[in-house]
Design brief:
The chain is mostly helical and 134 residues long. The protein has helices spanning 2-15, 47-50, 60-85, 99-122, and strands at residues 53-58, 125-129.
């Protein structure tokens, strides 16, 4: 019976709570917005916006490194899992470690990933800021 009295007291106390002053939302008036298009506006992708950047190569090396590391790790993981799931040699016969399969599949994945990353990076230009005229 005591818990019922506590429950009733807590519900009455919580129902009488009002929001604090900082929790009240004031009425907000939307002023409006107009896009900046006109004779002096510079739009992204326009010739005026591109004059501040100079092409300085591409992302070949970054793409090859990222692709090689990612697909190399995936290939090593996949090669190890395939080797671990295969038939194990009988006691005393052959090599029971999967180091060769793991390293070999990791190298194959790194070569494939590096090649794909190289070509993706080659198609992505790298820009740097143009020196300001003084």
């Amino acid at each position: 019976m005591r818990w019922i009295a506590r429950l009733v007291t807590a519900s009455i106390a919580l129902s009488a709570v009002t929001p604090a002053r900082a929790q009240r939302v004031a009425a907000v008036q939307f002023v409006g917005w107009e896009p900046a298009v006109g004779p002096g506006a510079v739009l992204a992708g326009s010739a005026a916006a591109d004059t501040a950047r100079v092409r300085s190569g591409d992302h070949r090396v970054e793409g090859a490194v990222i692709g090689g590391v990612l697909l190399g790790a995936l290939g090593a993981l996949l090669g190890n899992e395939i080797c671990q799931g295969g038939a194990q040699p009988a006691a005393g016969g052959g090599d029971s470690s999967c180091n060769g399969a793991t390293i070999g599949s990791g190298l194959i994945g790194a070569i494939i990933g590096g090649t794909i990353g190289y070509f993706i990076g080659k198609s992505t230009p790298k820009y740097r800021g143009a020196p300001s005229p003084q």
